[in-house]
Each structure stands twice: as C-alpha cells, then as structure tokens.
Amino acid sequence: MIITVSMIWRIVATSALFLLGGCAPMYFPNKINTPLLSNQGEVQVGVFGATSGLDIQASYAATDQLGIMVNGSFLNEKADDAGNARKQNFGEIGLGYLHRLGNKGRLEIFGGYGRASVQSAYNNGYFVDYADVDMNRIFIQPDVGFSSRVFEGALAMRFVIVNARQGNFSFTRSFLEPALTFKVGFPYIKFVTQAGLSLPLHSDNLVENQPVMFSFGLQGYINRK
C-alpha cells in the first residue's frame, strides 16, 4: 500500500480530534510560521500538509529588522461513516521584528491578525455534535533558532486570543501554542516538519480546540544570502 501525504496528515488529524473528548472543535490551529529570515529582500514560500489542512505560508524581510508574513490554511474533509467532518478557510497577516544572534542565531517576534470560517461535526458515540462559527484571532509569537545552509531549527511560543461567533453567541478564549520546527535540505529548498501543542488557558474551554499540531512539507528560499 502506498502511503501518501494526505493519508498521513488525515490519520494525525483524526487522532487529535478524538483527544477532544466529545465536542466538535471550533479552532484548528495552523502551522506556526518560523521563517528565521536572514537578510533584507529574502523571500520564503512553503506548502505543508498539516492537522489544520493544507497550509500555505509566505514570508518577506522588508529590512534587516522588519519581517512580513502571510499565512493561509484550507481544510475540507467530507463526513465519514461515523459522521465526523471538518471544514476551514483561514487567512492571516503578521509583522515582526528580526534580530541576528551572531552568524547563525535568529530571534523573531511576530504579531498579527487572522479570520476563519469553520464547520465541523464530531460523533462521540452517543450523538453528533456540530460547530459552525466565524472566528477572529490575534497572535503574538516569539521564536528563536539557528540557520545554516543545510539545517535549521526553531522553538516558537505562540500566544493567541480567539473570538468565535456562532449565531447570537460569541466566545473569547486564549491559547498557548509551543512548537518545535526542523528544516533540512539545500540552500534554496528544504523539507520542513513541525510538532506542537495548543493549550487552552481557561478551565472552561468554550472554544473547543484541536490540541495537537503537526505538519510537514517543503519551503523555498529566494534571495537568501
């Protein structure tokens, strides 16, 4: 049997969904963008299979100290035999401060805003629970790492505030999302994998979330010195 990228991230996503314990998730955290930009004019573009779906990310160093990122996440899983289904369209933009730590070290602090529409259904064995929400999210994300021609590694700690609206009801909750990212390959294209968690900071988690983040894909580099 040939195992495809789609099959792998579907298995991971389904496993994470069952960890939720009985409610349809409203919030599917996207892959954390940790570009580790090196110089003014550098551009990065990546495509990833993730627990949040298909993630597309782009980053640009406007100056040696100012970075811009644009991220999108798209998911459309039809209902399976048990009635589980997920759909999400998400986009965000962020600005960041860039700082070099010697030749290979990098420190970045990004912040930004995103919007999403989410529909999901989850069968807990007794009934099917549904969510149909419009969502706004703001985030601040420091990350630190090192970058070389062949290998890069980064530790990110993203803090997000999520506002979900369903009908006449609106809920605002916050999450802490640590993640490790590894990139390996060639100077202008690298294989990227990331693993992390989405941890609710409220005991009453009214905005149900997917707690596990995992992704892998390819990232290209333009004008990196």
Name a few traits of the molecule.
mainly beta; Porin; 10-stranded antiparallel barrel
Assign the CATH class: Mainly Beta
User: Judging by the overall fold, what is the CATH architecture?
Assistant: Beta Barrel
Instruction: Give the DSSP E fraction (strand runs of 2 or more residues).
Output: over 45%
How is the largest sheet built, in terms of strand order? 1-2-3-4-5-6-7-8-9-11
What is the straight-line distance between the termini? 42 Å
The overall number of domains is 1
Mean pLDDT over the residues: 88
What is the structural class?
mainly beta
Helix run count: 1
Q: Tell how many strands the DSSP assignment holds.
A: 11
Structure commentary:
- Helix content is 6%, strand content 63%.
- With 225 residues, it is mainly β.
- It has a single domain (5-222), classed as Porin (Beta Barrel), CATH 2.40.160.
- The protein has a ten-stranded antiparallel β-barrel with strand order 1-2-3-4-5-6-7-8-9-11.
- The chain is elongated, with a radius of gyration of 18 Å.
- It starts with a helix and ends with a strand.
Kindly summarize this structure in a few lines.
The chain is mainly β and 225 residues long. It has one domain: Porin, CATH 2.40.160. 6% of the residues lie in helices and 63% in strands.
Task: Furnish the topology, listing elements before pairings.
Layout: H1 5-18, E1 43-50, E2 53-61, E3 66-77, E4 85-101, E5 105-123, E6 128-147, E7 151-166, E8 169-186, E9 189-197, E10 199-200, E11 212-222
Antiparallel strand pairs: 1-2, 1-11, 2-3, 3-4, 4-5, 5-6, 6-7, 7-8, 8-9, 8-10, 9-11
